[in-house]
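Annotators were shown the component list below and the corresponding predicted structure, then asked to write short factual statements about the assembly.
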Amino acid sequence: MKSAEVDESYRKRAIRAVTFLAGLYFFLEFLLPESVLQTLGVSAAHSHISTGFIVVGTMAFGLGIINLFRVHGTKVVFRRKDWAFSFALLTGLICMMTVTGLDWLSGLSVTEKNAEYRNLGLFTEAIVSDAGSSPEEGRVLPPKQVRLAKLIEASHRLAQETGSSLDVLTDALPSQLKPEKRALFQQFSSQLRGRITTIVAMTPQELSSDEEILSFGRYLNETGVLYEKLLRMDYDVSLIKKVYLFFFEGLFVSLGSAMFSLLGVYIASAAYRAFRIKTVESFLMMMAALLVMLGQIPFYEYISGDLPAVRQWLLEVPNTAAFRAIKIGAAIAGLVMAFRMWFSIESESFSQQGGK
Amino acid sequence: MGVEHSTPGILLLLLGFLGPVVFLIRRACRGEEIYVKRIAGVDAVNEAIGRSAELGKPVSFTTGLTSVSPVLYACLGVLSHVAYRAARFRSKLIVPQYNPEAMAIVEDVVRDSYRDARRISAFDPQSIVFLSESQFAFASGYMGLMHREKVGSAFLFGYFAAESLILAEAGQQVGALQVAASVSPEQVPFFICTADYTLIGEELYASSAYLSREPIQLGSLAGQDIAKLLFVLLIVVGSLIATWNSIFPEAAFSNLGTLIRYPWSSLWEGVP
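Structure shown to annotators:
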């Protein structure tokens, strides 16, 4: 056997083995009771395994982008037929990716500021809990007073930074806000200034009890939330947010809605073609559709008061029965197909279809 | 995790459904003849490809919103056949894609089919076009493709949602002969109204076996029918028990649903 054929043989075996093991895992995970899975340690590992599958799926997403650049990039570079459409598509793709990336970074910087306050809040909880328990073996903690001094030092630094940032916001932001938002900004900014003053004036001596330390932690958390609200106001009027909204809500969502609205026209044209009575089946379909439509509209009162009941019967009895029959058939066929995939019976047949 | 998904009754049902499938696959592999009834929509597959070749127009095949799932694998059997025929007839094949994971598999299958047809040099990876992962962006991309390429035949196989009518109407507008197959019953009426041939539900799974005549697929198709018969039998027995229980409540039996729902713990703790 040639080397390439041997490699291919091993590759196929490896794929089959991985497919079988993955299928076996999910089959047993579905089938076995929770108590057995916990004993085997599967329950603990399940979230990691699921994350692994998400990672593989995410990697495949890149394939889509590569394909777009390959197909449409070639058209643009070689000026092939309809290259202008490809150019528009690639331009749209690049613009949307850039704007979304920048918007995500801007949003991230807003939440990061709050995170700094939140971390200090968590630090206060750690100071209190560590003081009340013996440290783990091999772990040396600084004395409580030293940690409190560090907490105050970090709080002062953060409050001063927030104060500077607030000055910049107060100079530039109000003129860009709508009146109701501006009033809200004034209210939040004066509250935040008061809090900054309180934090800057705080000394380690004022935090003598655990309750005072925890209370200071909560105060820091609330300050962070307030600061984030102000930063978000700034972010909402920023250029990048406006451009993102223009691309997403202004173009993408509107164009999607326009496509969806085509359905209204298409349903009418498709119904016209389908309801031309050419056979007994199309006559039956036409009659059923007529009864359902007449039973739906208020006009039925002029024809017969029983039409809504007929409509309901048609939808709930013959229609539901047919739906269930299709679903049962498709579900069993899907089960069998899954079984063939699990045992790699199906994958082999694509390239060896005898009937060709 | 943390939820009991299954019971011994489910395991028994699974074995009951899969047993006939395994048995008939083995019989088919031994060379025994398996009868498959004629499906007009599947017969139309070859007709549609031939029509495209005669007109000198491209063939389009989309798997719609199908992700990597058993439905996709059912579609791949038909795609393989369509790609093979298109390659033999030197027709251009376009495969618009919605899901990037499925796209990688689709590309592999189309390449294999071109290789089997000894026309690998004609295989163009750019014929497998990723349009978008957004439903209506995909639909608009598909419409544009149909109109620009003026396809002669279009195959819509797989899972479709609200965009099904938009896709099928696009083919209708350019005069393509369309064969559609969907496992979602909600979309079947739209396809019946718009496409020339429609495969309903499990016919999609059967089409690959019908086209390829491959023993494994034929065997599993025949096994599926027995599994369905078992399902119908369960429905009839369940209905009879329910009827008996409503007439004679003092002598009621446990119905099948109750038996299937007994948990694993009932095996060692006793049936309640």
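Statements collected:
1. Chain B touches chain A through 85 residues (CB under 8 Å).
2. Chain B has eleven helices and six strands.
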